[in-house]
Design brief:
- This protein is of the alpha/beta class.
- Helix content is about 35%, strand content about 25%.
- The chain has helices at about 15-25, 30-40, 60-70, 90-100, 120-125, 145-150, 160, 165-170; strands spanning about 10-15, 30, 45-55, 75-80, 80, 85-90, 110, 130-135, 150-155, 165.
- It has a 6-stranded parallel beta sheet with strand order 4-3-1-7-8-9, with helices on both faces.
- The longest helix is centred in the N-terminal third of the chain and has 12 residues, at about 15-25.
- The radius of gyration is 16 Å and the shape is globular.
Length: about 180
């Protein structure tokens, strides 16, 4: 299927997955506005959700505010801390439920994560007739996820559009690889 201007788009972003992939692979932060713009392209954005775990810091609040200004609706929850001290914080089930809830309202779901746990979601959406496009930093993305989606965009292929250099990189202390 070709991308057309009349396609209705739903975007679902796993903030933690993308943030940590960008930091680990490139020493940078993802440019979520650039990613959203490239993903949606000339099509009709219905909703764009960004899912994250809140630590309630001032820096984090600025980040979340910037996401909202870029067109994302935030879905947040606090980190779970268990009695034995272990911590857990993910949105896999929440993202899956929301994506399936919107399956009848969109033509294309853009899943922005490299997490292979989403392969069953991809298959379920495709079964409902929804095209699924994936976007992630390629080396940090599951091979099975890349194979399952209808189209995959490797964000590492265009670092200038999809990364915000770290302060150290801007000061010239770290040289980021550019294409």
């Amino acid at each position: 299927m070709i991308s057309t201007a009349d396609q209705r788009i739903g975007v679902f972003v796993d903030l933690s997955n993308l943030y940590h992939s960008a930091r680990r692979l490139h020493g940078s932060r993802p440019n979520f506005g650039g990613i959203l713009e490239k993903g949606v392209s000339n099509r009709k954005l219905i909703r764009a959700f960004a899912y994250g775990i809140s630590n309630q810091t001032p820096e984090e609040e600025k980040f979340f505010e910037s996401l909202t200004k870029q067109g994302f609706e935030l879905r947040m929850k606090e980190l779970q801390v268990f009695g034995d001290g272990t911590k857990k914080g993910d949105w896999d089930v929440g993202i899956a439920i929301d994506a399936l809830r919107y399956a009848k309202k969109v033509d294309v779901v853009i899943l922005i994560t490299g997490d292979g746990d989403f392969v069953p979601l991809v298959r379920a959406l495709q079964h409902e007739g929804v095209r699924v496009e994936g976007m992630a930093f390629g080396l940090a993305a599951s091979i099975k996820l890349k194979e399952a989606v209808d189209q995959f965009t490797d964000l590492s292929a265009d670092k200038r559009s999809f990364l915000i250099p770290s302060k150290l990189a801007r000061e010239g202390r770290i040289r980021l690889l550019r294409r």
